[in-house]
Amino acid sequence: MLTIYGVIRSRASRVVWLCHELGLPFEHVPVIQAYRLPDPDAQGAPLNTHSPSFLAMSPAGAIPVIRDGDLVLTESLACTLYLARKHGQPFGPADATEDAQMLQWSFCAATALEADALTLLFLHRPGRTQSGADQAAIANAAERLVRPLSVIEDHLSRGAYLVGGRFTVADINMAEVLRYAQGYHELMDRFPATTAWLQDCQARPAFQRMWKDRSAEPE
Ligand SMILES: N[C@@H](CCC(=O)N[C@@H](CS)C(=O)NCC(=O)O)C(=O)O
Fold this sequence. Notes:
With 219 residues, the chain is of the alpha+beta class.
């Protein structure tokens, strides 16, 4: 059986969401980020990204990791793309063209969006007092996101989903990155097709199931 290592309050959410879409059973090992623990190296600390047994399996010391038979795989987007390709349509590619398009949107999410979207998530939390430096970082991140978001907006204005006219792994990979920026309305309100698509993705029962389990985890 497939094993997913990593609490759902992490990029493991992407893999869990896809598995629910696929109806794929998995064992879940809730390895937690070391930085979220007061003393990750203490005896009796929960299994975390510093734990020797976890590092022995995955020296990168990051979650998520999946194990599928003899394959141990890191990098959340590699995990989702692998599972989607393995299980085929509708969530995976029908052919090399769709495969390339799924890679394109996933790499776009990881390289053109993720870092700046995370800046918005961390610095624009409700109730957080922002320093001047924070405000500058938020403005810069939002400005850098305009160009890739314009490309996505244009694409989604002409079709409901990113690839093949159906919901696929590309939508999961992109939606989970754009979720980080979703609360920054000053930016997202400029992209109505993208906002509507994101809400549509998050209304799916598989996302809702993942989100319920994620919300049940300690903050
Ligand atoms: N590019 C990697 C990033 C993995 C990553 O940084 N994961 C975070 C949690 S979302 C982590 O494990 N941090 C470990 C730590 O800080 O101890 C991926 O997409 O899987």
